[in-house]
Specification:
It comes from Nocardia rhizosphaerae. Keywords: Membrane, Transmembrane, Transmembrane helix. By secondary structure, this protein is mainly α. The protein is 76% helix and 0% strand. It is built from 10 helices and no strands. Helix 1 packs antiparallel against helix 7 and helix 3 crosses helix 7. About 3% of the residues have low confidence.
Length: 227
Amino acid sequence: MGVLLITLLGFAVLDALDVLLVAITTAVVADSRLTRRSPVVSGLSFLGGVFVVSVAFGVVTVLGIDFLVRLFDFQLTPLQRYWGELLIGVVLLVVAALPMDTTMRGSGRWVQPVRRYPWLLGVFGFTLGLAKVPTSVPYLAALALLSAQRPLPVVWPLIVAGYCAIALLVPLLVLALATRRTPRARKVYRVLVRGVIRFGPPVVRVLFVVFGVILVVDALVHASQLW
């Protein structure tokens, strides 16, 4: 259980470096400052929408996998485990090799409506989550690892919710720093945003390679179990 939680924590930290969420949160903060409003309501509305859809997707996915496992009386064998490690490792390496587009084309379209109705950012976050969550390799890998536990931990829904909360820590930290008016808070805010936007994609790419290599090597070490 401890190894599982540590692994899930690592994947959640990877998810927390999502440049797109940080960029949108920063845009919300900047727009709130222009209109002399607090960014808290709009920012929490957006991140809340992402959180809700992430938790819902995770719970439904684990329940679906668990239902299929029970239906077919599935037992995880060493063959399936190491083939799973090999496939996940290869996917991580392939994703690490893909170009990462962090631009926000057409981001000005939502500005005027959400200035009048901040809750619309929650809908925007929910919609963005629907597109983002099913393609999040760390999250999908984490759900697969959690679903493979037999029996499932009693508190597995809380584990899913905790994962989703940790995955939003960096955007939440950006939002929290934006509410502080001290010179130090402003400096940390600028450094954090610039650092995540500049170094986030390379760091995630490197960690994908590290995790992918570890999984592939472990699978190859147990190559006798692959056949």
